[in-house]
UniProtKB/TrEMBL annotation:
It comes from the Bacteria. SUPFAM superfamilies: Radical SAM enzymes. This is Peptidase U32 family protein. InterPro entries: Peptidase_U32, RNA/ubiquinone_mod_enzymes, rSAM_sf. Pfam families: Peptidase_U32 (PF01136).
Length: 309
């Protein structure tokens, strides 16, 4: 049984070595101008340093270029790809075909990971983008375990699955917080609108709080709960899923480090001693629950939801 890659989102260059020591195999970094919903905004110098540190420790770095690009940014893509090739990024994450077109011309040997958040829902689509040049498909968060296993069985590309952290529920290229505030009391109310962090949409009907933030790419609304399936990894590992992602957006470096350690232990146990994993998996889940922020309940996302056709 092959161990899946453990992919983590560091908050800074200083996190690379501790996370590598904790068991991370690869990292996602990037610049807000080109990447969506990053755990932190890495400048070019920081991207270069992160790659250097990771490679010195035998780890990989994937750089996010998964934003939606309007015409004013398209001309920049080739130069940024050439920079990433120069600093030896292990792959580029993309969703907009403009990145694929730029890469074909500027960096034809660059590894590409296809990620559109919501449309990687079947193996045929994953293979289509594989034929266009993608090495990996990052699956939508809204599909269940049975679909993930089926996709891996039929995929001609690597498969990446998010196993921990919050999911994206909505994005708009517009700055929408002002509009929400204007309609306060009629739809939902925005809490802490003027702060960069700890902003929430209140849905009183469902009794949920949705983290919301604005950046250069617009407005982002996140899930009210965090995915956590540290106790449900075996089926995907047996199916051969290539990469498990821990998304650390809006989390502290200390939290990401501890979660990485626990998933490292879970993956190793599941591959090397499945019976021991069965014995310890509930304890591993309990340890995450102990460090989980009070306003972020854990659930299993869509992994065990019934598919409706």
């Amino acid at each position: 049984m092959t161990k899946p890659e453990l992919l983590v989102t560091p908050k800074s260059v200083e996190d690379i070595i501790p996370l590598a020591d904790a068991g991370a195999d690869a990292f996602i970094v990037g610049e807000q101008r080109y990447g969506l919903r990053l755990a932190a905004d890495f400048s070019k110098d920081e991207v270069k340093e992160a790659i250097q540190l990771a490679h010195e420790n035998g780890k990989k770095v994937y750089v996010a270029m998964n934003a939606i690009f309007h015409n004013e940014k398209v001309e920049e893509l080739a130069d940024y790809l050439l920079f990433l090739q120069e600093v030896q990024a292990d792959a580029v994450i993309f969703g907009d075909p403009a990145v694929l077109m730029a890469a074909r011309e500027a960096t034809p040997n660059m590894n590409l990971h296809w990620s559109t958040e919501t449309t990687a829902t079947n193996w045929y689509t994953c293979n289509y983008w594989g034929r266009k040049g993608a090495k990996r498909a990052i699956l939508a968060r809204e599909i269940n375990m049975d679909a993930i296993v089926e996709m891996k069985e039929n995929a001609e590309v690597e498969i990446e699955v998010q196993v921990h952290g919050m999911m994206t529920m909505f994005q708009s290229k517009r700055s929408l917080l002002g509009n929400y505030y204007e309609y306060q009391g009629k739809v939902m109310e925005v809490e802490n609108r003027k702060q960069e962090h700890n902003m929430f949409l209140h849905d009183k009907e469902r009794e949920n709080k949705y983290p919301i933030f604005e950046d250069e790419n617009g407005t982002h609304i996140m899930s009210p709960n965090d995915i956590c399936i540290i106790d449900e990894l075996q089926e995907m590992i047996e199916a051969g899923v290539d990469s498990f992602k821990i998304d650390g957006i809006l989390k502290s470096p200390e939290y990401i480090l501890e979660v990485t350690k626990l998933y490292r232990k879970a993956i190793d146990l599941c591959v090397e001693d499945p019976d021991q994993y069965e014995d310890e998996k509930d304890e591993l889940l309990s340890k995450i629950e102990e460090i989980q922020p009070a306003n972020r309940p854990l659930d299993t996302g869509f992994f065990f939801k019934e598919t409706v056709y």
